[in-house]
Amino acid sequence: MKSIVWVLVIVVLAFSIYWFKFRTVNGVESAKTAPLKAGRNSLIFNSSIDTLMTAYFDLKTAFVEADSIMAKTAAQKLSIVARGIKLDELKKDSAGIAESAVMQLNDIKSNTESLIKQPNLKEMRQDFRMVSESIYPFLKTIHYSGPTLYWQNCPMAFGEGKEAAWISNTAEIVNPYLGKKDPEFRASMLHCGETKDSIVAR
User: Fold this and answer.
1) Whether 88 and 149 share a structural domain
2) Are residues 2 and 100 in the same domain?
3) Taking the alpha carbons of 28, 34, 38, 44 in that order, is the dihedral positive or negative?
4) Looking at the structure, do residues 104 and 131 belong to the same domain, yes or no?
5) Does this model's pTM top 0.90?
6) What's the pLDDT score for residue 123?
7) Which of 60, 95, 98, 181 has the fewest CB atoms within 10 Å, i.e. is most exposed?
8) Do 148 and 168 share a domain, yes or no?
9) Which CA distances in Å does 13 have to 6, 9, 18, 19, 24?
10) Angle at Cα 74 formed by Cα 69 and Cα 80, nearest 5°?
11) At what angle do helices 43-64 and 121-141 cross, to 10 degrees?
12) Burial of 137: CB neighbours in 10 Å, binned 0-12, 13-18, 19+
């Protein structure tokens, strides 16, 4: 009887050791094959986002200079770059990241196309506000990994109490809505605004 008990003890012990090792190995393997965390995007993807932001900053500069021709040229470039961004690799992430990014990128495209069609700087700046408000959450969604950017706001971009925001690659406030050649303020309101948030690489 004692020998049977000992045999059972040995069998249970052996099974326990095997199960523990098997679980550990599988745990390591699972870690190796698990989808990449959100934000660990490819170099190609990150490069396309850098190009998008370069085009956006060219557009911002055009509004600072109050140059409608420069603005349309920059907007056309921004539109081309936005249409070329591939979001397929975001599908590996969870929590609807890919779906949100697709909707936000579509907003960027449509608002940029609308901007290109506008007849004057005032209307173009309204669409620039919408482009900015589309890019800002897009960068958050895709876990932007470039240099630090700044989300800035002017409380009177379109008149008293009519605010608008933009993205800057410097902490200095250089207002694209009032710019250097505003009909009322000229360049005196160029630095009107404040930084509301920063977009830091994750």
Assistant:
1) yes
2) no
3) positive
4) yes
5) no
6) 98
7) 95
8) yes
9) 10, 6, 9, 10, 17
10) 130
11) 150
12) middle
41: its two tokens: 């995007």
Contact (Cβ atoms closer than 8 angstroms) between residue 92 and residue 62? no
Q: Is the pLDDT of residue 16 over 90?
A: no
pLDDT at residue 94, rounded to an integer: 60
**CA–CA separation, 51 vs 45, rounded Å?**
10
For 28-65, give one letter per residue: b (16+ CB within 10 A) or e: eeeeeeeeeebeebeeebeebbebbbebbbbbbbbbbe
DSSP 131-196: HHHHHHHHHHHTT--SS-EEEEEETTBTBTT--EEEEESSSS---TTT-S-BTTTBTTTTT--EEE
State which H helix or E strand residue 197 sits in: strand 194-199
Q: What is the pLDDT of residues 83-95, one digit of tens each?
A: 999 998 888 776 5
Q: In what order do the strands lie in the sheet with 164-168?
A: 164-168, 149-154, 194-199
> Tell me, what's the pLDDT at 91?
81
* Residues in a beta bridge with 195: 152
